[in-house]
């Protein structure tokens, strides 16, 4: 058996090999440790390898805590099972019900096309408009769904711009061909008389050679011009696709429900510190902190993508192709006109969406008393509102005929008749929801919450934080946070964002205790850094979707996304220190985080042995 055949066979069965060998190779950790800390670390390492390599499907790996934690005595079966049904899971459930209703009624397409008409027809401004539309939709819909909607629209606009640019070159090309043909016709007249004169024959031969050279040069120039146009068209499509893809990721970090990573982080935090820790981390505080940062990140990303693929001169140039602009605007307008007038069902879905957002903001707005104070003990959470609106979507009729019977007059005069209501389907059926809802995400969320509880109960978080802090003595805290965010941002390029959060956040929480800082610092740094995955197609589903259109190469995404990773991490750290301190009260450690006499260390300080 040849060596190449052996390695090819090994590569073919690599997932099976990883699946079987990982628990065996990690057994020394379990045997030598012989404690809850080592047992918990053993399970986390197995899940990390499986999640990273996808040797086992992500959702199947999420079930491992239900099997191993009770067997190793880390948590009881009831405790592990309860982690999979926390209120954050139902926040995701209720929100996704409304998202599916929006997609089912095609409201996201109507909104995106309408806003595009407001941004003009110049490519650079269309790009910015597409990014803001994508970012807004990603705040509420999944990033993958948003990209699946926006990518086809993006490609259609890019190709329309390219077609208009090529058509603009046609008159110039036809004029040159006409001049050359006229010259040839003049030379070919009175051919018989000219060939009888040697001097004329020599002159004609010379002119014909010159004309051939001229035609050849013109053809070369036309080919070069065509190549330049094709190159510009390809760059335009690449830049637009990447801009929309990155905007979906940046929009997702803006709200708690924007991406499962945020929901996992909040759930892990509450599982670790209790329900009181969720008071400062609600929908309003998260949105107030992330919204300005997201806007700035989208604008910086827009400028960076323009620099990378096109030119900043497009922002200053006033020379626009009128034909191209009209064709683009006509294309967008034609797509918008194809949509039917807004129906009763669409209006109802919009009202439900607005009511949900309003209830989230007014639950605990901090400025004035929220509606949660009307109920005992303030037990109502954001998930309460999401489930309420989600139930209404399943029950509310989608046709106005269900209500018109109230004021409708009888048709027959002189004879009393009763106008009974007509039945109509609901805004969303359970069958449609069942088909489109990502049930695997619910198990991924539960796995993250289970890992958080296990790390806390086994003492793994405390052990990791204590040992890591020992190696960081004398290092400024802000440098530690910056290194953590960069490391997580680069790691999540190769692993699932949810998996990275589920693995590292429970462990990093122990670091916040030993650094004597507010745990919300670690939460924001670790969670938001997990979303900064711009460099590889495998990093996120939106990145992979962008590659399905064929114009992008891996080198395009790496050279554009890797610098963007560092830019976003730097801006995140700056925002946490500038605005996060006042919004989340990061300058003090709250009562729910107080453990073993922990006290505050200023951010510009360094770790010394006496502080631990």
Describe this structure in a few short sentences.
The protein is mostly helical and 612 residues long. The chain has 28 helices and no strands. Helices cover 71% and strands 0% of the residues.
Overall mean pLDDT = 76
First-residue to last-residue Cα separation: 59 Å
Give the helix tally.
28
Helix content: over 70%
Order of helices and strands: HHHHHHHHHHHHHHHHHHHHHHHHHHHH
Please, could you describe this protein's structure?
The chain is mainly alpha-helical. 71% of the residues lie in helices and 0% in strands. The chain is built from 28 helices and no strands. Helix 18 packs antiparallel against helix 19. The radius of gyration is 31 Å and the shape is globular.
List the helices and strands and how they pair.
Layout: H1 3-12, H2 14-25, H3 27-33, H4 36-53, H5 58-61, H6 64-71, H7 77-83, H8 87-104, H9 107-116, H10 123-138, H11 143-188, H12 191-195, H13 198-252, H14 260-273, H15 283-309, H16 313-316, H17 322-338, H18 344-363, H19 382-395, H20 401-404, H21 430-436, H22 439-458, H23 460-470, H24 477-491, H25 497-514, H26 519-530, H27 541-546, H28 554-584
Helix pairs in contact: 2-4, 3-4, 4-6, 4-22, 7-22, 8-14, 8-19, 9-10, 9-17, 10-11, 10-13, 10-15, 11-13, 11-17, 13-15, 14-22, 14-25, 14-26, 15-28, 18-19, 22-25, 23-25, 24-26, 24-28, 25-26, 26-28
């Amino acid at each position: 058996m040849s060596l190449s055949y052996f390695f090819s066979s090994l590569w073919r069965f690599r997932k099976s090999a990883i699946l079987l060998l990982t628990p065996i190779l990690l057994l020394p950790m379990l045997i030598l440790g012989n404690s809850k800390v080592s047992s918990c670390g053993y399970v986390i390492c197995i899940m990390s390898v499986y999640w990273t390599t996808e040797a086992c499907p992500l959702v199947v790996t999420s079930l491992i805590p239900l099997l191993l934690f009770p067997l190793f005595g880390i948590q009881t079966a009831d405790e592990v099972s309860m982690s999979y049904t926390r209120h954050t899971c139902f926040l995701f459930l209720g929100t996704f019900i409304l998202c599916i209703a929006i997609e089912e009624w095609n409201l996201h397409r109507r909104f995106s096309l309408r806003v595009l008409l407001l941004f003009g027809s110049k490519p650079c401004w269309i790009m910015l408009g597409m990014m803001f539309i994508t970012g807004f939709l990603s705040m509420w819909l999944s990033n993958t769904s948003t990209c699946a909607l926006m990518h086809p629209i993006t490609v259609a606009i890019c190709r329309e711009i390219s077609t208009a640019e090529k058509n603009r070159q046609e008159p110039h090309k036809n004029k040159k061909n006409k001049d050359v043909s006229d010259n040839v016709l003049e030379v070919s007249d009175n051919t018989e008389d000219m060939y009888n004169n040697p001097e004329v024959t020599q002159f004609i031969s010379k002119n014909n050679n010159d004309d051939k050279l001229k035609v050849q040069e013109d053809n070369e120039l036309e080919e070069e011009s065509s190549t330049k146009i094709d190159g510009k068209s390809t760059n335009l499509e690449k830049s637009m696709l990447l801009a929309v893809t990155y905007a979906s990721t940046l929009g997702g970090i803006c709200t708690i429900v924007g991406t499962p990573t945020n929901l996992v982080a909040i759930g892990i935090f509450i599982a670790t510190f209790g329900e009181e820790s969720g008071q400062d981390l609600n929908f309003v505080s998260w949105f107030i902190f992330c919204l300005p940062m997201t806007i700035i990140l989208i604008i910086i990303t827009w400028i960076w993508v323009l620099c990378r693929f096109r030119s900043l001169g497009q922002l200053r140039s006033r020379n626009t192709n009128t034909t191209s602009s009209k064709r683009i605007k006509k294309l967008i307008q034609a797509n918008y006109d194809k949509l039917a007038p807004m129906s009763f069902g669409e209006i109802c879905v919009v009202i439900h969406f607005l009511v949900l957002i309003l209830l989230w903001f007014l639950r605990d707005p901090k400025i004035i008393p929220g509606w949660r104070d009307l109920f005992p003990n303030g037990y109502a959470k954001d998930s309460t509102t999401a489930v309420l609106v989600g139930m209404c979507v399943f029950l509310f009729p989608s046709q106005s005929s269900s209500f018109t019977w109230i004021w409708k007059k009888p048709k027959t005069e002189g004879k009393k008749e009763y106008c009974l209501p007509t039945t109509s389907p609901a805004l969303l059926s359970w069958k449609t929801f069942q088909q489109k809802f990502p049930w695997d995400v619910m198990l991924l969320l539960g796995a993250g919450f289970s890992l958080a509880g296990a790390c806390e109960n086994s003492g793994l978080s405390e052990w990791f934080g204590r040992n890591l802090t020992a190696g960081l003595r004398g290092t400024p805290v802000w440098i530690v946070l910056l290194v953590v965010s960069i490391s997580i941002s680069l790691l999540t390029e190769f692993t699932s964002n949810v998996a990275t959060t589920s693995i590292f956040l429970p462990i990093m929480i122990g670091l916040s205790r030993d650094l004597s800082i507010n745990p919300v610092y670690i939460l924001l740094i670790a969670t938001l850094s997990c979303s900064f995955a711009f460099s590889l197609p495998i990093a996120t589903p939106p990145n992979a979707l962008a590659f399905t259109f064929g114009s992008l190469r891996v080198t395009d995404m790496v050279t554009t996304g890797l610098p963007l990773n560092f830019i976003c991490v730097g801006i995140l750290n700056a925002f946490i220190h500038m605005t996060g301190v006042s919004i989340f009260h990061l300058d003090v450690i709250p009562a729910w985080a107080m453990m073993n006499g922990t006290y505050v260390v200023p951010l510009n300080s360094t770790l010394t042995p006496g502080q631990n």
